[in-house]
Amino acid sequence: MYRFLAWTGVVVVLALVPFYLDGFWLQTGLFAMSAAIGAIGINLLTGATGQLSMGHAFFLAVGAYAYVFFSAEPTARLSGMGLPTGVAAVLAVLVAGVAGGLFSPIAGRLKGAYLGIATFALIFGGQHVLFNAEHLTGGFNGRAVPELNLFGLSFGDTPSLIVLQVPFGTLERLWFLGLVLVALAMVFAQGVLKGRPGRAMNTIRDHEIAAGVMGVPVARYRAGVFVLSSMYGGLAGVLLALVFQRTVPEYFGVLLSLDYLAMIVIGGLGSVGGAVVGAMFVSLLPQLLTKYSDSIPLVAAPGTPGGVSPAEAARILYGAAVVTVVLFLPGGLLGLFRKIRLRPPRLRLPLSSPSPSPETRSPHVP
Amino acid sequence: MTTFVELLVNGISIGAVYALIALGFVIIFKATEVVNFAHASLLLAGGYLVARLWPVVGFWAALLIGIAAAALVAAAIEFLVIRRANVASHSVLAIVTIGVDIVITTELTRQIGTDVLAMGDPWGSQVVRFGGVTLAETRIVALVTAALLITAFLLAFKYTGWGVAMRAAAEDAETAALMGVRLGRVSMSAWAVAGALAAVAALFLCVFPTPGLDRSTSLVALKAFPAAILGGLDSTTGALVGGLVIGVTESMMSGYQNDMAFLGRGIGDVAPFLVMLVILLIRPAGLFGTKELARV
Q1: Assigned domain for A313 exists
Q2: Which end of chain A is more exposed for a tag (fewer CB within 10 A), N or C?
Q3: CB contact (8 A) between residue A118 and residue B89
Q4: Range of the domain at A193
Q5: B289 within a domain of the structure (yes/no)
Q6: Long-range pairs for A156-165 at CB < 8 Å and ≥24 separation?
């Protein structure tokens, strides 16, 4: 009952946001939602299965560009399919999954950090394609993203829509779509993690051989989780493209992939909630610093010489946050919240705390 | 034919530099089982100090300071972060090094800004001609230095007490500790050596014919990752071979890219990663990596 009330409260507050906050915050929030979906995906892969991936940005790019390609009307310079936008969005997610599947000979066989380095190839190869396949991707300048249109409801500025005296433009409409998508993504991932596949994934992470002995097809699971995580990436890419309204190749580089890894470590590895918390932290931090750069010491407004720009300050902060979390807060921010909620005398250990097995890490004797 | 020889020698030379980076990467992995994604930032730190200090103290002193500083930073990462992190899996340690990398790289690229910093090296843009083949002096120096350093390292690894301790620790940490090997010192020294090698590599990545040290240098350094993994993460031989394979591939693909226009511009930058994928498809543990076997 208590949980139900809490969740209802969260939903009501989130649904009220577009009526009170301006475009800047809506856009920031939407970026955070897209990041949350992507982070859930990579947390299934890295957090729950122990497979490191540096290539997550590539799958976001695949999702974003595939959506544009399927939905845009072909022009003389750029090709497109002109499909209904809803269909295009679904196809884009599927294409991202297929791209992940094509990588499965490698994703299934390599483990941990080996896979991390191998997936660098996706980023660099992907960047190469994005810049060079100009008729598909628009090259350096990227492509404009067509508005989404679902069942007659357009997620654009026209036709104008006024709800309770608040004009509902692109961002307000996408806000609700984003909420629904994040909720679906969370529920689905929760189902995967709590069920049979989740147990298998955690066993692979904790002890590969034990997993194999128990009858878990390790390679197939690794490849499967990789595909699932890339589909999450694709969905995040589609939402991102809709919010951005333009796809730019530079955005989908190494730095974005590192951001995603930072998110899941900061939030908490291996859980859906952790991914969402981390995504919010990493995507809201730069915007908060930008907005309040005047009143924070050491941080200069963007464009002024000297001082640390908000974007850089945010990067340094969350880089440091990754280190701090691993050193002092195993379990991430989510683990911290749980600890606060479960502090004595109601002390109950969270069931999901992964204990290091002796094989995975030998103790360091200084 | 001359073009081919020029490209080949240049490729081997740049490959030797990649091998230096990859070697450091492999040493760290062997000693602490950490995949060090902060390696590019160590390299950037060393290179940045050299570039900033040479107008003040002269090139050779600056180079020494740069190498020492990179070694110090690496040792500090090991001492302050890696040793203290008590985590369930090595993937998490790898992500920690990503956090370190984000901090160092962001700060250094902020300091560098949009500048291109010269390294102040004595070789400048001079070239040497053998027959019809023209080679940059810097490339020859890079090749010789890298060869010397790698030989020295391999000899030390094999014959000195430090090398034996390191190999013993890599083989079986617990037994080594019982035999009196100080694991803390071993892993710290491994990090320091790797940092020093990265700083030397930084110098040669930023001299002629490249314009100098700029904010994209750390991206160039990422090419040493495929070098390390295609040779096998736990093999020093693998790092050397991997470095050379990557160097020659990159040099050839960039040199002949006009003949391969259908692959698009800048294929030389992507080729190392594609080679890595192909090799990993055939040998998932890399060319010289030990295939992991476990007894249950």
Answers
A1: no
A2: N
A3: no
A4: 21-253
A5: no
A6: A163/A19, A164/A19
Residue A47 placed within a domain: yes
Which of A117, A261, A308 lies at the smallest CB-CB distance from B95? Answer: A261
Confidence of residue A362 (pLDDT cuts 50, 70, 90): very low
CA distances from residue A258 to B33, B147, B243 in whole angstroms, order as listed: 21, 33, 24
Tell me: pLDDT of A166 over 60: yes
- CA-wise closest residue to A149 among A76, A67, A94, A211: A67
CA-nearest residue to B170 within chain A is A362
Question: Both tokens of residue B80?
Answer: 């302050």
Q: What is the pLDDT of residues A209-236, one digit of tens each?
A: 888 888 888 888 888 899 999 999 999 9
pLDDT at B65: 92
**Interchain contact, A323 vs B106, CB within 8 Å:** no
Distance from CA of A125 to the nearest CA of B (A): 6
Q: What is the pLDDT of residue A365?
A: 44
Nearest to A117 among B173, B184, B226 (CB): B226
Q: Which of A52, A316, A356 shows the shortest C-beta gap to B106?
A: A316
Examine residue B234 and state whether it is found in any structural domain, yes or no.
Answer: no
This complex has an ipTM of 0.82
User: Closest Cα of chain A to B293: distance in Å?
Assistant: 10
Q: In total, how many domains does chain B have?
A: 1
Split into its structural domains, chain A has a count of 1
Question: Does the residue B230 lie in any domain?
Answer: no
SS3 A148: coil
Contact B269 A124 (CB under 8 A): yes
Alpha-carbon distance B262 to nearest alpha carbon in chain A (angstroms): 10
Q: Using a CB-CB distance cutoff of 8 angstroms, which residues of chain B are in contact with residue A320?
A: 99, 103
CA distance B202 to chain A (A): 20
pLDDT at A366 (0 to 100)? 44
Q: Out of A112, A133, A362, whose CB is closest to B174?
A: A362
- Residue A232: the pLDDT is 93
Task: Give me the tens of pLDDT residue by residue for chain B, a chain 296 residues long.
Answer: 778 888 888 888 888 888 988 888 888 888 888 888 888 899 999 989 988 888 888 888 888 999 999 999 999 998 988 888 766 667 778 888 888 988 998 888 888 878 888 887 777 778 888 777 778 888 888 888 888 988 898 898 889 988 888 888 888 888 888 988 888 888 899 999 999 999 998 888 888 777 778 877 877 778 888 888 888 888 888 888 888 998 888 888 887 777 776 676 777 778 888 888 888 888 888 888 777 666 66
Any domain includes B212: yes
Contacts of B102 in chain A (CB under 8 A): 258, 262, 315-316, 318-319, 322
| CB–CB contact A366 B83 (8 Å) | yes
- Nearest chain A Cα to B105, which residue? A316
List CB contacts (< 8 A) between B231 and chain A.
Answer: none
